[in-house]
Write a structure and sequence with these properties.
about 10% strand
């Protein structure tokens, strides 16, 4: 109360209020109906004091307020502010928010798809656009005062993360950087790096959620709280949370019980009362179905909800299950509003396309308040789902994890069906960081009193593991920075080779590598102390036991080497036999998943690489395409043939045979079994071991028996100490190599890239050649391949659709590799040009191997993927959406996304291609116009 203050205290309080009113923060706070949180105030005050800021806070905590304050400061000071986001959808969303506040004339948008008012004082853009502006020395950078990097933790992304570091390193010193991140465990380390490269940077970390989060497990009819007393509601409070004992008891009972059908049939041995008790127990515990979960949450007032299913097909299936169950979450008024919004947002889409896109089934689900959300959907459809969800007209969304990446779509409840997902290589447990990101959607600030995260019961679920995921609120930020060809020429052009090398040394990747060396050095010191102890343990009074141990190791190594050579020889014999196979040969596959009778459809490719990922080659010989007796068409690898194979019979393959047709496969497999099912393959004779006749092995055995230590009574005891010594010494040497390898790693990679570019005449010392200037305009994974195609005039004379097909190979990557059937390609010039692109890539790949540029480490050119060439050609040739999607066997969302990436690279090709004596630049622009139609052109701003 002011009445209780002394005159001096009242005067001081008044001065503080007046001082605050004089700041830019005071009028900014009045723009919001709610008060700012302490971390927001602290960050805004640091910004106004002229410092850069790193704000790390949970999803939904309102850290974008700090970015909006930077916008406010820029306008107040008459300077510019660039607001960068990782994805176009986020850029569109932020653009709409800022236009609502400041008006169209003060806000611009720059993404790969849209360019709106790019000279405005506030411009929202994707991070790549800003990186390209920095390298090009764009005039738009003049007067730039602030850059907001939203979702800066994206720099961990192994495909795009380097862009964030490039921007941070290359921004002019006069620009104040505002970095907004999810809660990461090494925010201080990242802040230290920002302090080093950007100057005074304040690190503000908030780990408290604005809306408390309650964790649950839904098993059968009962919703179990994960923690018995959740006093800190999912934050990092001081109170210790105890696991719910009922849930632990359930897990112990359920996970240890085995249901044996044979025991059940014994009748007399199992008392009726025991069977009844087991039946009742089992009836309480099951994984509820998707409609059942939504109905349960609806009854308890826990909608709207997002159910994360780590599969696109699973999301679509969930919607269908809810429809078939008769689920309705909207009343008649809600259904009418949904229809009005959907029809308005999709009015530009022709009715024939709507049918192809499954519009009417999608609309029916939306009217009931149910929807899917995943990357395979048309962007317009996803935007409609997001809008309806925010308006409360869609109450149950089934989504893949991509929804968790930044889109402002909070719910009251988040449901996780499983705690494992396919990561592209295997089914793996989700990480604490992923769990935090997914459950961070639960709880809408200003709407919900609390949020809820529900994990569905699955057999084998471990509450302790789940508690670990729920309790680990943060994950570390790891740099994914790697130099690229485009980066190298742009750096040398702007700074010269020596200065470029120094700039790369300032990357966060090198900063982290240098810090990690300290811990490794300490481990080396501890290992050396251990080696002294082991050396004493293996001391023998009869002689030098170290020398004796070396002889034993040499013998073991020689035996291993001979065994390896024998295996290699057998593989070579097997590969030689595969090269002799012809279409129509009937063979017996000796081992592997497809062992047994098989018919050769295609002998396979000659020896060499198939995918350009050096270090990931699974074969070094032919890969025959076969039809098995079980009607499967598979491309086999050398691993399936440990011994030579020869044709048992010959069969004619009908010209009408189609490997995609189940009927064709069934008929030919039946003919195969009839023709050769009775033949028993000859057993391969095992050869005499090479070790039996090896002179080196005989010599080593003689020396071992003659050594003084061979007669020691404690020989094997000494040998155990010697083996420990050897292993620890090997580990220590490996650590020392790691120390050497981590020092100047980025600069050494840059040196190798520069050497290769010099070899190809893109660079001459500190000079960037005309070829290099062309490469500087080409961004993307296959930048060097695109530049070489322009230099060798591979694309000259191609029509716009043919050029679109060729450029698609630079961007497309199939979600799953399918070696069984070669992709369909346009004929004529386009096919020849695509073949030439693959040939050039092969030459570059060999050159990268020569210069030790390793693609397994994220540097280099992957093989171009021709899988989208036919779809791009068809679409650019004005074919209908129905025809293109049917032949491409691809969801509409994927098709649109790949088309837009092709358009983006075509724009780069148009800018980089020579203007004189060349058709490429003109045809690239025409190809963009041909592709930018129909569903591809439906993307909207806002």
């Amino acid at each position: 109360m002011t009445e209780d203050l002394t005159p001096a205290e009242a005067y001081a309080a008044a001065r503080a209020r007046n001082a605050e009113q004089a700041t830019a923060l005071a009028p900014f706070r009045e723009m919001y109906e709610f008060g700012l949180d302490p971390f927001q105030i602290e960050a805004c005050q640091a910004l106004e004091a002229g410092k850069g800021v790193l704000v790390a806070a949970p999803t939904g905590s309102g850290k974008t307020i700090v970015g909006e304050f930077a916008v406010h400061l820029a306008l107040t000071q008459g300077r510019k502010c660039f607001y960068t986001t990782p994805i176009k959808a986020l850029s569109n969303q932020k653009y709409a928010d800022l236009v609502k506040r400041y008006g169209n004339d003060k806000v611009g948008l720059l993404t790969g798809d849209n360019s709106v008012n790019g000279d405005a004082p506030i411009v929202v853009m994707t991070t790549e656009v800003l990186r390209n502006m920095l390298y090009a020395g764009s005039q738009a950078l003049s007067g730039l005062g602030y850059v907001v990097m939203d979702e800066v933790h994206y720099l961990s992304d192994r495909f795009r993360g380097a862009v964030w570091e490039e921007v941070i390193i290359h921004l002019p010193e006069s620009v104040t950087l505002v970095s907004l991140s999810a809660t990461v465990s090494n925010a201080e380390e990242f802040g230290d790096w920002l302090d080093t490269v950007r100057g005074d940077t304040e690190v503000i970390v908030s780990e408290s959620r604005p809306v408390p989060l309650w964790q649950h497990v839904l098993a059968g009819r009962r919703m179990y709280d994960l923690f018995e007393e959740e006093t800190d509601h999912g934050g990092r409070g001081a109170s210790r949370r105890e696991l719910n004992p009922d849930l632990l008891r359930l897990a112990r009972t359920e996970n240890t019980r085995t249901y044996n059908p044979r025991e059940r049939r014994r009748g007399k041995m199992v008392r009726e009362a025991d069977r009844e008790r087991e039946r009742r127990q089992r009836s309480r515990i099951w994984t509820p179905g998707r409609p059942e979960v939504i109905e349960r949450l609806d009854a308890e007032g826990l909608l709207p909800a997002i159910t994360f299913i780590f599969s696109r097909a699973g999301c679509e299936a969930a919607v269908q299950q809810c429809l078939h169950a008769g689920l309705r979450l909207n009343d008649d008024d809600g259904r009418q509003r949904v229809r009005e919004i959907v029809e308005a947002r999709t009015a530009a889409i022709p009715s024939e396309d709507l049918h192809v896109l499954g519009y009417y089934e999608w609309l029916e689900a939306l009217e009931r308040g149910i929807a899917a959300h995943h990357a395979g959907m048309l962007p317009t459809f996803k935007e409609v789902v997001e809008e309806l969800f925010v308006r409360g007209l869609v109450k149950a969304v089934f989504a893949t994890e991509t929804l968790a990446l930044g889109i402002n779509m909070p719910a009251r409840t988040v449901i996780l069906e499983k705690l494992v997902k396919w990561n592209g290589e295997q089914h793996a447990d989700i990480t604490p960081g992923e769990y935090t990101q997914l459950t961070g959607r639960a709880g809408r600030r200003g709407i919900d009193v609390e949020g809820h995260a529900v994990v569905l019961w699955q057999r084998g679920l471990d509450p302790e593991h789940l508690a670990g995921l729920a309790g680990t609120r943060t994950y570390p930020l790891r740099s994914s920075f790697k130099p690229s060809y485009n980066m190298a020429v742009n750096l040398v052009e702007g700074f010269g080779r020596h200065r470029s090398r120094e700039l790369l040394e300032t990357s966060f990747a090198q900063f982290q590598a240098d810090r990690s060396v300290v811990g490794i050095s300490r481990q080396v010191q501890r290992n050396e102390e251990g080696l002294d102890g082991y050396r004493q343990g293996m001391t023998c009074h009869l002689g030098d036991f170290g020398e004796y141990a070396r002889l034993r190791r040499d013998l073991k190594d020689r035996e291993t080497e001979l065994a390896r050579q024998g295996a290699a020889q057998r593989r070579a014999q097997a590969a030689g036999s595969l090269e002799k196979l012809k279409p129509g040969d009937v063979i017996h596959v000796p081992t592997g998943k497809f062992a047994g009778l098989a018919l050769v459809l295609d002998p396979g490719i000659p020896a060499g690489r198939t995918n350009g990922h050096r270090g990931f080659e699974h074969h070094d010989g032919p890969r025959p395409l076969v039809l098995t007796a079980e009607r499967q068409v598979k491309r086999l690898a050398s691993i399936d043939f440990p011994v030579p194979v020869e044709a048992l019979e010959r069969m004619r393959i009908p010209k009408s045979f189609n490997p995609r047709s189940p009927q064709s496969r069934r008929d030919l497999a039946s003919a195969l079994r009839s023709k050769a099912g009775h033949i028993n393959p000859e057993r391969h004779q095992k050869q005499r071991s090479a070790a039996a006749d090896d002179r080196e092995i005989a010599r080593l055995r003689t020396e071992i028996r003659a050594h003084p230590c061979h007669g020691c009574d404690e020989r094997e005891d000494h040998a155990r100490w010697a083996e420990r010594y050897h292993r620890l010494q090997r580990d220590t040497e490996q650590l020392e190599r790691r120390i050497e390898g981590r020092t100047n790693t980025i600069a050494r990679t840059f040196d190798r890239i520069v050497a290769l570019l010099t070899e190809l005449d893109y660079l001459r010392a500190n000079e960037v050649t005309e070829n290099g200037k062309r490469l500087a305009r080409l961004y993307g994974e296959l930048d060097l391949l695109a530049s070489e195609c322009l230099r060798e005039r591979v694309w000259e004379g191609l029509t716009p659709p043919e050029l679109a097909a060729c450029v698609s190979a630079l961007v497309f990557e199939a979600r799953q590799s399918d070696d069984a059937v070669a992709p369909k390609l346009p004929s004529g010039n386009a096919k020849a040009a695509l073949g030439e692109m693959v040939r050039i890539w092969g030459r570059l790949d060999a050159l990268e191997e020569e210069f030790k540029i390793n693609q397994a480490e994220g540097v280099g050119q992957r093989e171009p993927d021709l899988g989208f060439a036919w779809a791009a050609y068809q679409w650019a040739s004005d074919k209908s959406l129905d025809e293109v999607l049917r032949e491409a066997e691809m969801p509409a969302g994927d098709f649109v996304r790949w088309c837009k990436q092709v358009i983006d690279v075509l724009g780069q090709v148009a800018a980089a291609a020579p203007r004189e004596n060349s058709t490429v630049s003109k045809n690239a622009r025409k190809a963009v116009e041909s592709l930018l139609r129909g569903v591809v052109a439906y993307s909207s701003v806002g």
